[in-house]
Amino acid sequence: xxxxxxxxxxxxxxxxxxxxxx
Amino acid sequence: xxxxxxxxxxxxxxxxxxxxxxxxxxxxxxxxxxxxxxxxxxxxxxxxxxxxxxxxxxxxxxxxxxxxxxxxxxxxxxxxxxxxxxxxxxxxxxxxxxxxxxxxxxxxxxxxxxxxxxxxxxxxxxxxxxxxxxxx
Lengths: 22, 136
Hints:
The complex is a heterodimer of chains A (22) and B (136). Chain A is largely without helices or strands and 22 residues long. Chain A has no helix or strand. Chain A is elongated, with a radius of gyration of 13 Å. Chain B starts with 5 loop residues before the first strand and ends in a 7-residue tail after the last strand. In chain B, the strands form two sheets. A five-stranded antiparallel β-sheet of chain B has the order 4-3-2-1-5, with no helix packed on it. Chain B is elongated and about 45 Å long. Chain B is mainly β and 136 residues long. The interface between A and B is medium-sized, with 17 and 35 residues.
């Protein structure tokens, strides 16, 4: 069975992959 | 019939930080079992199974294809259920119990939220839907 996901936020994407806001 | 799982390619090395996660190397191919909206996806890699960050994966078929929902510039009201202090310049710091407008629900679990004049990424797992915005 699948355990609950981690309770901490996942790491942000690598810098070059981050989506720009707007 | 057999369940066909989506295959994703790992775009950057990931070092696991708990026993329920699995480590990844750039170029690995993983099969996705569950996509949690908080940005942690349950996947299998050969004989290993565990949670990995969705932000480190791209779909094997059509990596250019946008999977994220479209932004909703009107915003959907949410309340923070945990405080978070920004660590990157494109993030927003919020205290517990603040009401914000979610304008873009990204699959990586870092949603774009607006609070007054400020906009930034915030962990979706620290947000709770507060119902539809009253437009009047």
